[in-house]
Write a structure and sequence with these properties.
The chain is about 55% helix and about 10% strand. The chain contains five helices and three strands, in the order ααβααββα. Strands 1-3-2 form a three-stranded antiparallel sheet. The termini are far apart.
């Protein structure tokens, strides 16, 4: 599972690089956007995105393994649900970064 916490490597300054990379894919970003509106199954996502069932399933697997979505079985279908808590933690991390940038706009390291 990809974490939005202090587990990020020191070289990334605490930024959840793997999660940002995961969400940067256009199709995954579209899937996340659609799931923000409602729980959907693969067939709905195929219809909405125009991507193949295999492609959508592979992207959903990555999102599930990263903990961004969870699954809810419903008869023969599996619905995918976006985990808002993961996005809230990501937003808080980015908000903290923006606040640091605002506080430190006048800080400059002297050149050698």
């Amino acid at each position: 599972m990809i974490s939005v916490s202090d587990d990020s490597p020191p070289s990334t300054g605490g930024l959840p690089v793997e999660l940002l990379r995961l969400l940067s894919d256009p199709l995954r970003a579209r899937i996340v956007r659609l799931l923000a509106g409602e729980a959907l199954c693969t067939c709905h996502l195929v219809e909405e995105t125009g991507a193949s069932q295999t492609n959508v399933s592979n992207h959903l697997r990555l999102l599930r393994e990263a903990g961004v979505v969870t699954t809810e079985p419903c008869g023969r279908y599996t619905y995918y649900v976006l985990r808002a808590d993961v996005l809230h933690r990501l937003a808080a991390t980015l908000s903290d970064l923006a606040a640091d940038a605002e506080r430190n706009t006048r800080n400059r390291r002297p050149c050698p």
